[in-house]
Specification:
The protein is mostly helical. It is about 80% helix and about 0% strand. InterPro entries: Gap/Sap (IPR021315).
């Protein structure tokens, strides 16, 4: 059962891994004057936020396990279609928000101000991007609902949420580890990666939400059968 749950939430974790803005944020911190220290604080805060939000929704949905009752099946069918509709809407919104042809994407203001950040602001940014990121929050809600409705005992619920959170945070964990090497080649690679993520943010998220929407729609249709 536990392995099955991890298999269910792994595609959702990938959605957070490739989310461009948290990765761009940690790279900007690494390239700033306080470098690795700020990046580590940001990464820990982002991991804590991801764990807390996912656990909250897993706890809230625990007890609504899948069963043979009509209302339980109806709940999961409605939930599946709701998540599918939400992800497809976010895909549409991301596509509409892409830069027009010949238009340069605008760098978020907080990225421009990040050189002045200390540990407290870096931690606050990590918590904010973990809790209030409109692109990641629906993914964490879906992951928490999936974990909570699988009938796991509480220790396994905590473990599943923790494993999901660690995997989901690889997008910021890996640059933090790489940035600690101090290599000029890695620093140059991170800088170019940051620029590419900002430039292609809308398209990356459009494709991501389309895939997640299709997965959720498939689960809902399977539940109908």
């Amino acid at each position: 059962m536990f392995v099955h749950v991890l298999g269910e939430v792994l595609p959702l974790a990938v959605g957070i891994i490739v989310s461009p803005m948290p990765i761009a944020g940690v790279i900007a911190l690494l390239l700033g004057p306080k470098g690795r220290g700020n990046a580590v604080v940001f990464t820990v805060a982002f991991l804590v936020a991801t764990f807390a939000v996912t656990l909250a929704f897993a706890s809230g949905s625990k007890g609504t396990t899948r069963s043979d009752s009509f209302f339980a099946q109806l709940f999961h069918i409605v939930l599946g279609f709701a998540f599918a509709a939400l992800f497809l809407f976010l895909a549409y919104r991301s596509f509409r928000g892409r830069p027009k042809k010949g238009e340069e994407p605008k760098e978020p203001r907080w990225l421009a101000a990040i050189d002045s950040f200390g540990p407290v602001k870096s931690a606050g940014l990590g918590l904010l991007l973990g809790v209030a990121n409109v692109k990641n929050l629906p993914i964490m809600i879906a992951a928490g609902a999936t974990i909570g409705t699988e009938g796991l005992e509480w220790p396994l619920v905590f473990l599943a949420v923790f494993v999901f959170s660690v995997i989901a945070c690889l997008g910021v964990l890996v640059p933090t580890l790489l940035g600690g090497s101090g290599s000029k080649g890695i620093t140059s690679f991170l800088a170019s990666t940051k620029s590419a993520l900002i430039r292609h943010d809308a398209i990356i998220m459009t494709v991501l939400f389309l895939v997640l929407g299709a997965i959720q729609l498939g689960k809902a249709l399977e539940a109908l059968g």
